[in-house]
Amino acid sequence: MGKKDANGQSRRKSAERRFDLDDPDLPEWIDDGALASGGFPYEERMDRGDYKDQLRLLQIELLKLQAHIRDTDTRLVVLFEGRDAAGKGGTISRFTQHLNPRHAHVVALAKPTATEAGEWYFQRYIRRLPTQGDIALFDRSWYNRAGVERVMDFCTPEQTEHFLREVPKLERMLVDDGVTLIKIWLNIGREMQMKRFHKRRHDPLKQWKLSPIDLQAIEKFDSYTLARDELLSRTHTEHAPWTVIRANDKMRTRLNALRVVLSRCPYKDKHVKTVGPPDPKIVLPAPAFLADRGD
Fold first, then answer.
1. What are phi and psi of 77, to 5 degrees?
2. Which residues contact 80 (CB under 8 A, 6 or more apart)?
3. Could you give the 3-state DSSP secondary structure of residue 14?
4. Strand extents, DSSP E, 52-107
């Protein structure tokens, strides 16, 4: 009798946790658990008024950084990686909102062409690196090989292994050549990803963001987790470390991504109090994140 009850409870729980992306009603268990998913430490989202005030001040600091990069003929590359729906595009847009677009560009590459597929894997990324005095922000990067391509079987295990061995050498060359390279991983929990996908499905202004690969990301959540963990552990180096941001709250994510970059870069007239340190509750070096990752 006890076994039947346990099986019955299991079936009921499974039924309660069904998720139909096409159903306009988001299940309560997703809505209720989204913010806390993935080990996110805050019970409430940030106040929007405080967010806007801090964002403006940080964007002023970012303009100072851009002016410094122009004056010193240096180069800044920021990689934004993470799960689908982690907020990479929205975060990048807060970086570029007031920058001089002539000297700051976003790199968001589509599927490789037949020609690009026949090239050295890194080639199409290398040609989009910034010249002196410029900034390049990568909305996904060469790390596609160890993430999306690996999980979706768009590359072979041998190609993934080769990439993981070679990419630290490439990044060493970039840094040795004077490039400031900052790598940010935005991490969201399972329920938060479901909630954001659901909003994309049912918001006419966001439906373009939902691709067939995104839809498979829900079922392949655990596979992406394994790929993420190996990627972070094997490519976090002293010369090109990973910074992980727990990204369930978009407002905190954007402010802390700005702080990560501003705190890493020297520039004239930096207002240290405004920049401040990134929030240690949600911003971690990759080894610390992997030691207590949540999911």
1. -125, 125
2. 88, 91, 92, 137, 138, 139, 140, 141, 184, 186, 257
3. helix
4. 75-82, 104-107
- 23 CB neighbour count, 10 Å cutoff: 12
Q: Which residues lie across from 245 on neighbouring strands?
A: 186, 283
pLDDT digits (tens, 9 = 90+) for 151-162: 999 999 999 999
Return d(Cα 178, Cα 240) in angstroms, integer.
13
Give the residue ranges of the chain where pLDDT is below 70. Answer: 1-16, 294-295
Residue 51's closest CA among 90, 106, 101, 105? 90
| CA–CA gap between residue 140 and residue 128 (Å, rounded) | 13
Tokens standing for residue 115: 């020609």
pTM over 0.90: yes
Distance, CA of 34 to CA of 28 (rounded, Å) = 10
pLDDT tens-digit readout, 51-109:
999 999 999 999 999 999 999 999 999 999 999 999 999 999 999 999 999 999 999 99
Q: Does residue 149 sit in helix, strand or coil?
A: helix
